[in-house]
Each structure stands twice: as structure tokens, then as C-alpha cells.
Design goal:
The protein is mostly beta strands and 273 residues long. Helices cover 8% and strands 49% of the residues. β4 (56-62) and β5 form a beta hairpin. The longest helix has 7 residues, at 2-8.
Length: 273
């Protein structure tokens, strides 16, 4: 991504056709949110950031619970938008929707977010009926991204995150990131609220992204994460419920430059409790 962006002087994407293309030449309705756009936005989470993209609609159910739709096709637990992190699908299998609070990515480690508005099921499969959100993080082999952030907000909101890139050897690099957040969405409200609604929204996650050069032309990338979230979600248009998620994931990418061209094999696994 970095070398092609520097060569062409504009963002490069693979979310339109599966092959690298300039953002000005893609044959679909697409918006690319760059790392600079993220910094200027002042957003602290992905739904807030995506809510500023024309054509995307965000429904906020609670302090850390939202649903994102394209062109008005939004509903609780919407199954129509496919969300990816470096090519890994992050929807939850039990309903096929995305719980945004469980995505274990800090905003400061995102290189760009590619938003495709409109059906893209032919390239990505099911859940891409209304669009695709592809979150691309920095590659620790090429990008040295490190830093931390602490913030506070209304309703006793507290949030902290840290990102650290490590060069373990000339052939191995890794990036470790973690974040925690907590809020009281019932602060300063009447005490008559039912007890089962009075959960304290919180989320915490940790993510490891490591790259190893096996040979001069073969590279192995390993990504693993754990996320723990407690939020209030809408289970229908009329009812909400306190929900807890514990998700884990890992992903392996093996890339090799051969006489036949660039060959890549990928495998990933998501679990939820």
C-alpha cells in the first residue's frame, strides 16, 4: 500500500475488483478514509468515523453500541454490510451481523478504511449485499507506528489505547496494540430504569500483528486478537438487552513470489462466547 501510494500520489485499493487500483480509477462507488482523515476527525470509534461518510447511516443504541448501514438500509443487527479487517471477516456467525465494539483495532494503527457503497457480493460473497467496509492496518514490516492516547468524555466516559511496533530481528517485526474503554450511559438519569438495563458499557481488546520473512521472496504474516465487550444492544426495533461478547481470532497469510507470479494463501478462524 505504501509504495504504490507514493508512486501514484493517491490511495490504492483492492476492494473494488480484488486487484490493486488507483482510487480514482475504481469502477464502483467508493470512499477511502485515510490515516490523516482519521486524525482530523476527532472520532474515538469506528461508527462515529463512518457516520461522516456520505451514504452511510449510523444508528446509535447505547454508549458503545451502533449499527451501520448503506443508503438507508439500516436495522438492528443488520446483516447486509460486510466488514473486514485485513481481509478477515469480523461479523458474528450467530446472526451474521457486526458488533462494532468487538473489532480489536485501534484507530491509530489504521492505514486506511475502504468503503464500497453498493452490492459487492460477486467479489466478497454473502453479507456484502449493501456494501463493504475494509479496514487496512499498517504492516509492521514497513511501517513503524507507535504511540498512546488517553481521553475522557461525558457520562463518566474513560478511554485509553496504546500501539507499539517492535523490530525483533532483521527478518521479524511485530505490532502490539491494546485498548480499554468504559462509560456510564445511565449517569444522571432517573432511578426507575429496570435493573437489567443498567449495565455499564465497557470494552477491552488486544491485538498482535507479526510479519516474518522466511526467504527473500516468501513472507508469513500472523494476526491474533482477543476482545471483551459489554454493551446495550437493540435486538429488535422495540427492545434492547444487555449483551456480553468475548471474541478471539487469528489469521495466517503466506505470500510468495514465484515464477508464476505472486501466490498467496490465507486462513483465519473467529470464535465467540
Amino acid at each position: 500500500y505504501g509504495s504504490l501510494e507514493a508512486l501514484f500520489g493517491e490511495p490504492v485499493t483492492t476492494s473494488a475488483t480484488g486487484s490493486p487500483q488507483r482510487s480514482t480509477e475504481v469502477p464502483v462507488d467508493m470512499t477511502i478514509i485515510s490515516a490523516d482523515d482519521i486524525k482530523r476527525s476527532g472520532a474515538h470509534d469506528l461508527p462515529t468515523l463512518l457516520g461522516r461518510v456520505p451514504g452511510l447511516d449510523v444508528l446509535n443504541w447505547g454508549a458503545m453500541s451502533s449499527d451501520v448501514g448503506v443508503r438507508g438500509y439500516n436495522q438492528p443487527m443488520s446483516p447486509r454490510l460486510l466488514v473486514l479487517v485485513n481481509g478477515r471477516q469480523v461479523y458474528l456467525d450467530h446472526y451474521g451481523y457486526t458488533a462494532w465494539s468487538t473489532i480489536p483495532v485501534q484507530l491509530s494503527e489504521i492505514r486506511q478504511i475502504e468503503v464500497v457503497k453498493g452490492p459487492n457480493a460477486a467479489l466478497f460473497g454473502f453479507n456484502a449485499v449493501s456494501g463493504v467496509v475494509n479496514i487496512i492496518t499498517y504492516n509492521p514490516k514497513y511501517d513503524n507506528v507507535s504511540g498512546g492516547q488517553v481521553s475522557a468524555s461525558s457520562r463518566n466516559g474513560k478511554e485509553a489505547s496504546i500501539v507499539q511496533t517492535l523490530r525483533l530481528s532483521p527478518k521479524i517485526a511485530a505490532r502490539l496494540s491494546a485498548g480499554v474503554a468504559k462509560a456510564d450511559e445511565w449517569d444522571n438519569t432517573a432511578s426507575l430504569t429496570a435493573a437489567n438495563y443498567r449495565n455499564t458499557p465497557s470494552r477491552s481488546n488486544i491485538n498482535l500483528d507479526a510479519v516474518a520473512s522466511l526467504t527473500d521472496k516468501t513472507e508469513l504474516r500472523f494476526q491474533s486478537s482477543v476482545s471483551n465487550a459489554q454493551v446495550t444492544e437493540m435486538v429488535s426495533n422495540y427492545a434492547s438487552a444487555a449483551t456480553k461478547y468475548l471474541t478471539t481470532s487469528f489469521k495466517l497469510d503466506l505470500t510468495s513470489e514465484t515464477k508464476l507470479g505472486l501466490v498467496q494463501a490465507s486462513a483465519y478462524r473467529n470464535t465467540m462466547r
